[in-house]
Amino acid sequence: MNAPEGPGPSHVAPSVADPLDRTRFPVDEWRLVETRFDGSDLGTTESLFSVGNGYLGLRGNYSESRDAYQDGTFINGFHETWPISHAEEAYGFARIGQTIVNVPDPKVIRLYVDDEPLQVSVADLIEYERALDFRDGVLSRELLWRTPGGKRVSVRSTRMVPLEQRHLAVLTFEVTLLDQHASLAISSQLVNRQDEEVEQPTPEAELAGAAAGGGADPRKAEAFDRRVLLPRLHGADPETARIKLGYRTVQSGMTVGVVADHALETTSSYSMSVHSEDDLAKVIYRIAAEPGVPVRLTKTVAFHTAQTVPPRELIDRCERTLDRTREEGIARQYAAQRAWLDDFWSRADVEVPGQPALQQAIRWNLFAVLQASARAEGQGIAAKGVSGSGYGGHYFWDTEIYVMPFLTYTMPWAARNALRFRYSLLGNARHRARELSQKGALFPWRTINGHEASAYYAAGTAQYHIDADIAYALSQYVGATGDEEFLAREAVDIFVETARLWADLGFWRDESRRTFHIHGVTGPDEYTTVVNDNLYTNVLARFNLRRAARAVWELQRDDPDAYEALVRRTGLSVEEPDEWAEAAQAMSIPFDEFLGIHPQDAHFLEREMWDLENTPLEKRPLLLHYHPLVIYRFQVLKQADVVLALYLQGEEFTAEQKKADFDYYDPITTGDSTLSAVMQSVMAAEVGYHELALRYFMSALFVDLADRHNNTADGVHVASTGGVWSALVSGFGGFRDIGSAAGDQQWQIDPRLPDGWESLTYRVTLHGTRVRVTVRPTELELAVEHGTDPVPLCVRGEVVKLAPGAPVVLPLEHQGPRLEGEPPYPAGIQRADGTVISAIIPTGD
Ligand code: BGC
Fold it and tell me: Glycoside hydrolase family 65 N-terminal domain: which residues (predicted)?
């Protein structure tokens, strides 16, 4: 897919135009459709057409394989470990590298007609269509192939990873000869890709690799130069056509079992043989195929994984999953998938009528977050979900700040699972805090197994804000669901241990008033590291401290038994919450009176500015072209930092401050991280830059669909897909939850419908009641779609008690403040001391 802005992501999409080639990807509101084969972006389309359920993910590889950027199959959390060797060691550096493993590939179904293999890249294809349907969750492909011998063959295949049965994948492959009879061979396989000798890639695959950047890129996964999966078991049953493989990883000791069942339906005569060895198991059908007689293969696959359970036992589990599936029949799986997704869309759909291209992209994004998270249970939500190996399959703050809002308001049980996963890491986080000489708990910046896996501490471990991000997501979840029981029983420990970390990490200083500071941390913006009083960190830490104090006080008041249990679990003293509240009250929030803005950190304004306006596109993203030290020296942002704080803690800032901060930071934000555009869109909308908000939204909406960052091949940018929901619901839809730290939570709506949009409809579930919000140019409609309890909402200051069966229509006089264009580049302005902030591009020439 084309990235019209050039080699790197631009500051913001130059226009709101649709960037897709619609002759290849026609508009369809419910499907992503591709109408012709293109070998130049195999990796991208593999990610875009991946199917997954948050546990298991199959990339969109062609089942014939060979033409592939990465023949990937991923299971959330299934990883190998390796010792991180730092060239220069230091105390407390991350030691255990963790990398997601490519588990045995169940997608392979090869077809031979009169001994000629079907290989999509070289085949004479009369017809081609590939489609991912968001309503039934099925990826389908239809080919009409003219074989080298001149026979026309119709090949229809489908692939589905059930949302209800998370261990399962269902694949079908149907071949029909259109003209004359022929001998067919279908070889259905399970292949260990992780350890396979690298096959000679096809020219298309090689191109795709080069297009995706090839060489060193911190965003890719580490490669292993040794065996990762130790074969423990293989088998193939000639009676039942059941094949199996079992492995244990060399270092992490994790185990995986995979079993595939086959059913062939045809009235043509055929024979079947099976074969298995360490890294391959297959079933081969030889069919004397008659024209017009379909040959239909159904392949059902089950995966089970574990920390230590022997592969033999996992294979038993797989067999039970498959036996049950066989008894129930495949039709049931399709029906269940459809029902699951019907329910999902009724909870989560966001509608933009009259804009089918946007509608399609919106649904693709929402479907992608769903595929990354729905059945993650017991694991985190990786930066690429289960769609690719980028970032090694690691979990970051992406989950809490970008994905959790979507889950909390549309699929609260999945949000709860994600929080429970963090809770399960608390022991490690306590240990890690001790390692960093702190009290409380410090969650790892990036991890799979709970240990810090970031080898680069400056942009990794130093991002202490992960603690506050988790606390924020927990608070948001409890506020939205009312799940106080989860809070009281376990999750409150997260508040306590994170608050302790902040209280201990920060320190007091006696100035004109006593202030509390946090030094030596990195905020979300990774282009400035290890700073004092990063605004985002301090603002979120303040929230964390207050929210924790409130949670403890309320527990003490309302549930003394739970409070006692908390004290026993954590050794909490009565004074601690008071200390937290005091630290929060005195938190230092950098503010420059002269410029009227919040500096990103205590020394931010002392730096000169990177001349972003004149930096050539081939030097973007900066992280791939400049040493970190060069970047760190300047005022230049990888991603929203202050601006993100303005959104998450909006109630703490005035409208004037928000505008001033947005104006200052927006032009110096590169957007080199896909986590940026969505948040810039939200805040541009709030402060009044309507057209700019829409452009940021379009950038984000097509991050993957148009491969804007040139690395969609490594997997979907899940944070951005979640952020797309936030941009729609919070940005244009104007939805906010505020006040949870102080105990006066309120759901507010102050919309910003983009010009030219006829309406925007979204849904949020509040304490079990699903509310539908429709924004139109001159009115706002609120209705309870599901549930029996009334919901209080505050629309532009007016409180509405929304009751079931009684929709409310409110007039809207405007769509918020309106500012034209975009804020000017701020270089050349004066600092408070009279010096000028100059704009520079470091070249060394
Ligand atoms: C961003 C981080 C993010 C990570 C994983 C990086 O490029 O700067 O904020 O957590 O990607 O998505």
Answer: 34-306
